[in-house]
Design goal:
Layout (H helix, E strand, L loop, with lengths): L1 H10 L11 H6 L2 H4 L7 H16 L24 E7 L6 E6 L5 E3 L10 E6 L4 E6 L5 E5 L7 E6 L3
Parallel strand pairs: 1-7
Antiparallel strand pairs: 1-4, 2-3, 2-5, 5-6
Length: about 160
């Protein structure tokens, strides 16, 4: 994995100085070895970029990518994700939004509930499933991201 990331950086024009201490890893990270990694396709470039961004942000690679500034409304999607916005139009209190991972487990999409009239914006990926619950957990609704990379999708929680 490290060799692919290093090769990707080199292919992006970034100079790298590996810090490997063992001779085996120094050989794996050498310019000769990195040049043996084939040039990545456009989709592979996007996948590696997404993984590197998630790693640098301390986030789950498969999970939704949080915006760098939680207070910023995100309307334009980066080319490697979908900008999703979740509006709570309910008048009876806040909602909590969860992302369903590949194992079917629900993980919080955001730490705080979304109050009535407020919007949560985040970057995610096509096919991700989000689940919203009413403040008391009595109501539930699922949403699937259908937008493509680089696009925006808006979800309105007008009823659960």
């Amino acid at each position: 994995v490290a060799r692919v990331v290093l090769a990707w950086l080199v292919q992006q024009g970034v100079s790298v100085i590996p810090r490997a201490s063992s001779l085996i890893h120094q050989d794996d990270d050498s310019p000769r070895s990195l040049n043996q990694v084939p040039v990545l396709s456009e989709q592979q470039n996007k996948d590696v970029e997404t993984a590197v961004r998630a790693l640098l942000q301390g986030q789950d690679i498969d999970g939704p990518l949080q915006p760098e500034d939680d207070s910023a409304q995100q309307h334009d999607a980066p080319p490697d994700s979908v900008a999703a916005s979740f509006l709570n139009s309910l008048s009876d209190g806040p909602i909590r939004v969860f992302w369903r991972n590949h194992e079917g487990e629900e993980e919080p999409a955001h730490d705080d509930p979304i109050d009535s009239g407020d919007t949560l914006s985040l970057n995610t990926h096509p096919g991700h499933v989000f689940v919203a619950y009413s403040h008391d957990g009595s109501k539930r609704k699922e949403f699937v991201v259908e937008a493509d990379y680089g696009e925006h999708q808006h979800f309105d929680f007008d009823e659960l």
